[in-house]
Write a structure and sequence with these properties.
alpha/beta; four-stranded parallel sheet; 15% strand
Length: 163
Amino acid sequence: MPDNYRHYAIEVKPVGSVCNLRCSYCYYLGKNGGGGNGVMCEEVLESYIRQVISIHGQKAEIEFAWHGGEPTIAGIPFYQKALALQEKYGYGRRILNTLQTNGTLLNDDWCRFFSDNDFRIGISIDGPEHLHDTYRKDLYGKGTFKKVMKGIEMLTKHRVQFN
């Protein structure tokens, strides 16, 4: 298949290592997050999206895989800006957006946004409750399984594709 028609996926870390959880196996814990709130500034976001799109063929399908830390910490306005930039620089290319989340911050607003904009969501969950809660804790040392399941309920309610 010619490169012009290929599917390209690229990971984007809009908040670097910033996360609302303290998972016991996290490779970011204890590392310097670079200061500030960790959210990618608009100038970098625009440059990143413009450059990623420009290096691929006009018929290419480009997937932006938003990852973290916890990428929802960037906020809905950040992703609205990202979508506007994808539209600005996409010139008719098919652009997909996926997002990997721990699911604990999902609510109606997030899930409406994901549904309206055809985001595909990956949920991080470590098996049944007793295993998940052993390793995936919040800032206060409490398990997060029930919060993740509430996030999954929200995604289902809004008919968002997730895995």
